[in-house]
Specification:
Radius of gyration: 34 Å
Largest sheet: 5 strands, antiparallel
Length: 260
């Protein structure tokens, strides 16, 4: 009988060397993939919440500013608004602000020519903040709760609806003729609020109605406004005729026409 010294009692034992290590590596790999998946899901949810917060901030700011601009342009004391004054002395003038016509086949009335953009910034005033202006006022404004990262206005105007036949969009409307029939001009004001990668836009439309100024004091005030470079940067002259660049007998009244 052959003696068994025990060396070959378990012939498969030597073939399993390293199997436990491989199992451990696979388990660790699965755990790492699972962990990275959780991190990715968490980041996606976090980013989504930030986008929602930014979008809500933009929406609230745009709607509030849109309402404020409408009140300024159409209110009983509209003449005191900066935007109203700027529009009053620049629309229907030669060599300054062209009208917008998307169907015009020539040059000079495209978005590039007719759209004007204005940056809206917070006016740091004691009347609003009840504190003295700090040295780092700009940083304080940037950290204001609820204030978007960027607020802009896009303002442009168009001719009265139906004043230009579809077949005549190749012809430019004469400024002198336009001064005689300004009633019905359409003004568009887009409020653009941006925060992070989110943006929100509201576009309001206003229609011009002309009334006659019969009070001499109102004419004098309008004439005084014409002397301010901010409102009348090209220094258009004033008069009491329809041919005058700034007609002191015309009272411009903007009517709210709708929102997009």
């Amino acid at each position: 009988m052959r003696k068994n010294n025990g060396k070959n009692a378990y012939p498969g034992k030597g073939n399993n060397r390293g199997a436990a290590l491989m199992v451990a590596v696979i388990i660790i790999g699965i755990l790492m993939v699972f962990t990275l998946s959780l991190v990715l899901v968490t980041y996606t949810l976090y980013s989504s919440q930030n986008k929602k917060a930014a979008s809500k901030k933009n929406s609230e700011a745009a709607n509030s500013l849109s309402t404020a601009i409408t009140t300024e342009l159409t209110g009983t004391n509209a003449e005191s608004a900066e935007l109203w004054r700027y529009v009053r002395f620049n629309i229907c003038q030669e060599g300054t602000w062209p009208y917008y016509d998307p169907n015009y086949t020539g040059t000079g009335h495209s978005e590039k020519d007719a759209f004007r953009y204005f940056d809206m910034r917070v006016n740091y005033s004691d009347n609003y903040f009840n504190t003295a202006i700090p040295a780092n006022a700009e940083d304080a404004l940037n950290s204001m709760d609820g204030y978007p990262g960027s607020v802009k206005l896009c303002v442009y105007w168009m001719l009265p609806e139906g004043s230009v036949p579809i077949t005549a969009h190749s012809d430019e409307v004469d400024v002198a003729d336009l001064r005689k029939s300004k009633s019905g001009i359409r003004l568009y004001v887009e409020v653009i609020c941006e925060t992070a990668s989110q943006s929100y836009v509201i576009k309001n439309q206003y229609t011009l109605t002309l009334e006659e100024i019969t009070v001499e004091r109102e004419r004098k005030v309008l004439n005084m406004m014409a002397g301010v470079d901010t409102y009348n940067p090209i220094s258009f002259s004033t008069g009491t005729e329809q041919t005058s660049p700034i007609n002191l007998t015309e009272k411009w009244v903007w009517k709210y026409a709708g929102r997009e």
